[in-house]
Amino acid sequence: MEKKDLLIIESGNITQPFNYAVGLHGSKFFRELKDNKRILGIKCPKCKKVYVPPRRVCGPCFVEMDEFVEVGPNGKIGSFTILRYAFIDPETGEQKPVPYGYGFIQFDGADTLFQHYINIDDESKIKIGARVEPVFAKERKGTIRDIEYFRVIE
Amino acid sequence: MSKKRVAIVGTGQTHHKSHRPDVNGQELINEAVQRGLEDADLTIDDIDAVVIGNMDHFEGINYTDCWSVDGSGAFMKPIMKLTTGGTTGSTLGIGGYHMVASGLFEKVLVIGWEKNSESDTTGAITTAFDAVWDRLVFAGAISGLAVEAQAYMAKYGATDRDGARVSVRDRKHACNNPYTQLRKEVTLDEVLASPMLADPIHLLDVCPRTDGACAVIMANEDVAEKICSNPDWILATANRHTYTYLGDVNWGELDSMAGAAKDLFNKAGIKEPRNEIDVIELYQPYSFAGIIWIEDLGIVGRGKGAEYIWSGATDMGGELPINPSGGVIACNPIGATGLIRCAEAALQVMGKAEQRQVPDVNIALSSGFGGCMWTDLILHGKKKPDF
Question: Which of B120, B143, B246 sits opposite A81 (nearest CB)?
Fold first, then answer.
């Protein structure tokens, strides 16, 4: 059979909406971010590690956590890349606008990293260890997008 | 019922390609299964149970264990599915091993497959990550791997030329493998001149997308040597998972691999992995992992990976060849990929790897990796283990 005779059926633009539960601690994080531009971490009572985003259980210690601590809002770049290739964003179904700065930010006072955009207007400043600050969205809705991006501080 | 020793007695794989519009999923699966049965000189009637897996989100159809029974040969047999992301294929190998080692099944058929041509791979991978916290900036496997490479380079001073050397090695080895997808040698300069996808990963540093399937037949010690005169004995398996959110990862070192390696070598009594292992089939989806992860495996010390690669030790003919098959950089049908590593390690131990055979293999290591920074390891050997 010729290659042109082998059929491919397209699914078309199908969408399936989901409703994701953020949980007790995650909901508190987003409420503080939206209302007060504060970043909350949570501290393990056993190993004292401060996690962002806050979650109920410290996996390595397997104990419940309930001590919230304010971290940041400034921090440093823990690691990063600059995305330069186009791909379909499953959140939107559209091609993601590239290039963009993809950062893992360590908030001051936190032990884990937090994924977010980094402004790459000046790529030469994007380095591991560089100090950054968040740029908050004017209209905040209680989602990860309440921070628009991080930018390197001089 | 006591624990049984387990051997691989047959393997089969498709001729992997970027697109296989001539077959649907179960037809692709069937190709690998027929080749596996033929290799072991068995029929489907000899098989007691089947374990199968892929990453559902690439094809957008769930329950491959159910809809593929005609192709897999599982019609009216016990079958179950395992899906663990990038590690799916290696987890299938470990799962099959557990089933046979338990003594409940004598002969088990293990199948991994993927048709990556059926969707956008990066978009599909992203759906494996937390929708609230981890998807905003994430860009599939390459973004996480780029972040790992950046962290390693900052810590140990490696360069993108070091990474390129690994890609040159694997792409050269791939030319010896008739089943793999990309069989073209490249130079260091070609790797470095290829488009930058996510700093520091160039196009030629990273794996392609592939349609392919792999089948492995495992048998217990009561029958293994009757089926195959020189089977590949599974000496030990280990796996470790660390992930909750991507920001929790200790970027630049693969903690899951270091933990799994320690466990694996302890179980098998391996004291000096570099001297005792003869060949490694590493699930290495991009070049820099070829430097970083051999440190986590304990083959070389921290920060010594690049030097070891440049020495030629991991090339064909070197002291510890890595990826004689060409590895994942040459071919990546994701749900099959980890099982292909397992099958290729088995071929090396059985002396059936043809043009890609490493001489005198007594012990081989195969691995699986998942984008959540997970690790599976399987240790293979010529000698029946004496546990």
Answer: B143
Nearest Cα to B149, choosing from A125, A81, A103? A81
Contact between B251 and B155 under an 8 Å Cβ cutoff? The reply is no
- For residue B387, is it within any domain? no
Interface of A with B (CB under 8 A): 1, 3, 6-8, 11, 18, 20, 22, 26, 51-53, 55, 59, 78-85, 87-91, 96, 100, 102-104, 112-117, 127-129, 144-145
Give the 3-state secondary structure of residue A16. Answer: coil
Q: Are residues B246 and B293 in the same domain?
A: yes
Number of domains in chain B: 2
In chain B, whose CA is at the least distance from the CA of A107? B247
Q: What are phi and psi of A142, to 5 degrees?
A: 80, 40
B239-298: per-residue pLDDT in tens?
999 988 999 999 999 999 999 999 999 999 999 999 999 999 999 999 999 999 999 999
Q: Tell me the per-residue pLDDT of B7-22, one tens digit each, with 9 for 90 and over.
A: 999 999 999 999 999 9
Q: What is the pLDDT of residues A88-147, one digit of tens each?
A: 777 777 888 899 999 999 999 999 999 999 999 999 999 999 999 999 999 999 999 999
Residue A1 maps to a domain: no
- Domain final residue pick, B227, B256, B282: B227
DSSP B371: T
DSSP A29-78: HHHHHHHH--EEEEE-TTT-PEESS--SEETTTTEE--EEEEE-SSEEEE
Euclidean distance between CA atoms B381 and B165, whole angstroms: 29
Among the three residues B177, B193, B227, which one is the final residue of a domain in this structure? Answer: B227
| Residue B171 belongs to domain spanning | 130-209+231-381
Q: Which amino acid is at A128?
A: I
Asked if residue A6 belongs to a domain, the reply is no
